[in-house]
Amino acid sequence: MATIKDVAKVAGVTVTTVSRVLNNRGYISDATRKKVYDAMKELDYQPNELARSLYRRKSNIIGLILPNVSHPFFAELTSYIESYAYEAGYKVLICNSYQDMAKEKDYVEMLKRNQVDGIIMGSHTIDTSDYLSPSFPIVALDRYLSNNIPFVTSDNYNGGFLATNLLIDKGCKKIAHISGPLEINTPANKRYQAFVDVASSRNVEYIVQEAKLDIFNSYKKLIYSLFIDHPDIDGIFTSSDMIATAAIHVANEVGKEIPKDIKIVGYDDISFASFIVPPLTTVQQPIKEMGELAVKVLFDQIEGKQVELENILPIRLVERKTT
């Protein structure tokens, strides 16, 4: 395997000159730069990226930690984050935490050891305060990590407000909300809070169920139990389109006609929401803009700029055939 010394010898320059070319440091004439690149090509020389990052104190790599990249919402978000980062000259290391505290901590430490320039944290276990440092560039994605770590999210309260009011305006008399785990302090909990506030203020009977596992079949079991315990439910607002899709499946299987017998509103507006039968009414998160803003806030931190701690993007209610 060729070394930097081999490149210097073939190019007829010093090792220091080759290093300056690789790290784009100082003045190098075009002719000298061409000699170095030609020698690298001839020798099939691959620079040591870790060594270069230590020299430059910048790796042009960021970490992205998510609960589950196979989840459609996080898959779309990852696609946008990777695209925007790549356009800016950065690569992305993607880590699946599966909401495992030990695994999440291990990934954070691994990313720091590998000299990443910053981390976008989309996963959040109950306590992360012992290993997240505000001195290191970090952006939380739809999560609260601490009072001094910036986060990017959508207007969750307004989303829950619009969804719940829609169900009631459509004539629902007994409504249910299926939330994520409420013991984890996330902006998404405001969807639940808005649901409770609206249902209470409008004197409509309501039920709240927590969906603990991010598994489609577990969502279906929860909704079957909900229908058995409360057969008179006529409206459901779910905290994600995946849970809403499970509700549509179960409603069809037990003979509830949508939207005549039961109305359903999801959250996210992931790509397949409009292709479900019937097409899903949902609260649209600006997934593309959230990815772009997360990258921008992280890069601003890396460059030492001041950033806003709260970065909240607007949502939109998209009404389709489930209401």
Report a brief summary of the structure.
The protein has 323 residues and is an alpha/beta fold. Helix content is 42%, strand content 18%.
Give a structural overview.
The protein has 323 residues and is α/β, with parallel strands linked by helices. The chain has three domains: 4-47, lambda repressor-like DNA-binding domains (434 Repressor (Amino-terminal Domain)), CATH 1.10.260.40; 61-154 and 288-312, 3-Layer(aba) Sandwich (Rossmann fold); 156-285, Rossmann fold (3-Layer(aba) Sandwich), CATH 3.40.50. Helix content is 42%, strand content 18%. The chain contains eleven helices and twelve strands. It has helices spanning 4-11, 15-22, 30-43, 49-56, 72-87, 101-113, 156-169, 189-201, 216-229, 241-253, 287-302; strands at residues 61-66, 91-96, 118-121, 138-141, 151-154, 174-179, 205-210, 235-238, 263-268, 281-284, 310-313, 316-318. The strands form two sheets. The protein has a six-stranded parallel sheet with strand order 2-1-3-4-5-11, sandwiched between helices. A six-stranded mixed sheet has the order 7-6-8-9-10-12, sandwiched between helices. The chain is elongated, with a radius of gyration of 25 Å.
